[in-house]
Amino acid sequence: MKKTALIVLTIVTLSLLVYQLKSNPVKQFVNAITKTDNNLNKDSLTIASRVKPPKGFTRVNYPKGSFEDYLRHYKLKPFSSKIINYDHSEYYWQKGHIGILDITVPENGLQQCADALIRIRSEYLWDANRKDEIGFNFTSGHYCSWIQYANGYRPLIKGNQVSFSKTSSVNHSKENFYKYLNLIFMYSGTLSLYNELESITNVEDLKLGDLLILGGSPGHVVMLADQVINDSGDKLYLLIQGNTPAQSVQLVKNLEDPSLSPWYNLQMDAGIPVSNFTFSNSKFVRFK
User: Fold this and answer.
1) Residue 94 CA to chain centroid, in angstroms?
2) Is the pLDDT of residue 276 over 50?
3) Is residue 168 part of a domain?
4) 275 is in which domain, residue-wise?
5) φ, ψ for residue 126 (rounded to 5)?
6) Which one, out of 206, 241, 255, 282, has a CA that is 20 to 30 A from the CA of 194?
7) Residue 91 within any structural domain of the chain
8) Where are the beta strands (DSSP E) in 124-219?
9) What is the pLDDT of residues 82-109, one digit of tens each?
10) Which residues of 158-168 are buried (b: 16+ CB within 10 A; e: fewer)?
């Protein structure tokens, strides 16, 4: 059984590699091994302190305690940290990031690309005492909230049919919160986020915490983790991502433009290569 699972995982990983690098693999590889540290403070341990704004740009102000402020001050591991998979192995691609977020990778393998960003959003709401706002749709479209789960309600899932009944005792503990997140990781993903969340149709409206997303299978999603602006109103962004297989959450390079890296100039309905994945027709959504 373990051998079969390993074969399946290998096939999936190779398929994703072909899909992710189909746009311009040679250019991305060359740029990945090019030094892109002009904007970096390698000794710093938060997103905002690790990456300096490009010349002529300043950071966009957000209120203290906001999700946007929470993201840009997210703690990073030391600069040389590698991307580690859920099984403690090293990920095959170590050339696309300039930071690893200080967030654990559960050994169950469930915390993949969408899940990692769902967790970051949920932990912010938990820490901000906004627990009643924690909730996500399953891919089936059924909504599952943390409060509902904490009060003992569990889903009964038969195909695309989902019903909830009270089968467990009330438990509002942090330990139970992570059990809830594992349930969300199991039944939600890029497709459910794309269908559930508010679409952004104007690039000028983008802000920290928004998601660049391809909903589907395979799909992918990254989060805008910092934002700068110049006197002309031009905006640039930093991006973070989880991945499949479940692994470390990364602050990524810009492999298309090493001179600007790790900052991105984002556009609507455009091809945007991010690390080893290309969003061929960029779409953006926002958490509620």
Assistant:
1) 17
2) yes
3) no
4) 2-133+189-286
5) -65, -50
6) 255
7) yes
8) 135-137, 143-145, 153-158, 161-166, 198-200, 211-214
9) 999 999 999 999 999 999 999 999 999 9
10) eeeebebeeee
How many structural domains comprise the chain? 1
Q: Which residue do the tokens 């600069």 mark? A: 79
Residue 164 domain-assigned?
no
Task: State the pLDDT at residue 36.
Answer: 52
Residue 161 has pLDDT above 70, yes or no: yes
pLDDT exceeds 90 at position 207: yes
Q: Is the pLDDT of residue 199 over 80?
A: yes
User: How far is it, in rounded angstroms, from Cα 212 to Cα 286?
Assistant: 9
**Token pair in block for residue 270:** 């455009």
pLDDT at 25 over 70: no
Distance (Å, rounded) from C-alpha 243 to C-alpha 18? 15
Q: How far apart are the first and last CA of the chain?
A: 41
Whether the upstream peptide bond of residue 54 has omega within 30° of 0, thus cis, is: no
